[in-house]
Amino acid sequence: MGSKWKKTSLQDLGVKLIDCDHKTPKAVEEGVPYIGIPQMDNGRINFDANPRLISEEDFIKWTRKANPQYGDVILSRRCNSGETVYVPKNSKFALGQNLVLLRPEGDRLHPEYFRWAVHGREWWSEVAKYLNPGAIFESLKCADIPKFEIPEPPKDVQIKIAKVLTNISDKIELNQKLNQTLEQMAQALFKSWFVDFDPVIDNALAAGSDIPEALQHKAEQRRQAQKLPDFKPLPDNIRALFPSEFEQTDEPIIGIAGWIPEGWKPTSIHDMVDTISDTYKLKEVDEVIFLNTGDIEDGKFLHKDYSPTVGLPGQAKKSIAKGDILYSEIRPKNKRYAFVDFDAKEYVVSTKLMVLRAKENINPLLPYFILTQDKTVNELQHVAEHRSGTFPQITFKELAKVLAVFPQGPELIDLFVEQYLTPLFTKKLASIEQNEQLEKLRDTLLPKLISGEVPLKSE
Asked: Where in this chain does the record put each Type I restriction modification DNA specificity domain (predicted)?
């Protein structure tokens, strides 16, 4: 069904095209993000997707010509040509190669509407019309982009369309930020209890116990923290679960300066999970849901589509079960991991995904939480990069190097899992499910609103 609105070219709508600098600035360890094609993520800029960082001096140079501002749309001319993302409020970054800015100027085009108009089916028809085939990449010419036509509803209808779609998108982003906040809170608590051993130091200070010389600086930090007006001591029943003495260990663990709480012990991921390689009986079914490494990301399952068992790739072999942890062997920094919280009888996964199953009396959320912390991911990525092979890879063997320090009794661990981890994952999974429904609603409404198939009356 075609659009009920007249279609107008970008140049007639007052959209200005601003090309990028056709060179790449030097990367630095700390600086301003330099956003490229890999950071374009389903209509938004993913600032967490490891962008190159550049110096403030280079940022000034690279934004003299193209300085992204709120209301702009970024368009990729190569590699997924035609893909767009909007520039959010209060953002600061430089524009990468093969990207251009599209800036609405004048009164005909509402910037928020423009953000959505470059996602509709009419937009992709325009991309297909002007796409130039290449030996390696298809591309769009800067001279052709202003000719692209999009539906032009009345201005007040543009505003209504933008409001509907932006409200849905804002709710999705709010849920994502809430999940990040909840996870950061749990990680901060885990670090305080099981890495920095703050409650043990607090107990040692209260009891007047000797604190090792190597931990004196940490003890002083805790003394100062206790003087702050917002300091909240642990409830007595929880503090009682921590010792008030330290003992030394030679294990290469995450404990501070080789000292760990008295009576605690280093625990490897190998002590918590087994690797499972149960072969799925593909000959007994006609179709399954196949998950490769790219089909999971940062706790999310990216599809639930069935595939015929005939013609599946050779690596489609492993069966999984509720409570399993899926963890990619390839490039840990890509965060290809997920927790199976559902009946997975119809799922088969790639041999490149480790299937980890918690040992008896181990809550699977605990090893999953440890394996997905940024510190663990970075350590495993470092290990992967120093193994011989065609690309950075780990195996179950390398997970033995992931160590934590825990008390030998179950009370404290059970409390952490039941009061903090379980509620976190319950809220996170509910939020992910809600976002999936919101994304479906948005993606269904978007082409119908842009085309006028779902009418929003003009004033």
From this structure: 3-184, 261-402
